[in-house]
Amino acid sequence: MKLNIFKNQTELNEQLAKYVIAIAQQAIATKGRFDFVLTGGNSPKELYRQLSTTYADQIDWSKVYFFFGDERTVLPFEKDYNGLMAKENFFDHLQTPADHIFYVDTNLSPTAAAVDYKTKLDHHFDGQAIIFDLILLGMGDDAHTASIFPHTDLVKNNEATVASVFVEKLATYRVSLTAPLINQAKNVAFIAFGENKANALIKVLGEEKDFASYPSQLINPANGELQWFVDEAAAAKIDY
Fold it and tell me: What is the pTM of this model?
């Protein structure tokens, strides 16, 4: 695990963009495509804008396939849909072909949407192990990541799959990659900034393991690399 601490969000996004570009270029050179899992919420918006505008000429986007680490069970046209956020801040700028974007079909029930998404992943990876080149993850101030929330069924899910989960604190279902599936990736990068993440970050990176309370601790790629991209505000309680 590598912890990268930056002065502010601007510096963080610039360096994270360069990190994504390097992995993309390597994956395309090695295997002819880049399988890239996006995170939702507000944290990655500026990163997506930079990758698709400022740095757009650094990646052969015709060889990039986009996926989502999790999705909210709202309809695709609703503002909370992670896919819509990525479309507006990323795909529209690049005019990404529809067959290069793997959306979660929230027109289905949560359970059916999870099964459908896993089927799509299996097809894309030709029935072989689902090993993404890079998975971006956010971390909530409660230490959840993807939709693996504290004390939910997903914390104990040991299968490398896609699952639906009811999040009681939000009174809604989510669809998410499980931790074992995330941990098959070649590279995983967390993005966390702001002082509201400081309490969670020091717990997640601490020596004491409490996966149920701090699900982000579950992320530990078996044969890949884990990096954290955080700002000084998020790292305020860490001795570095």
Answer: 0.98
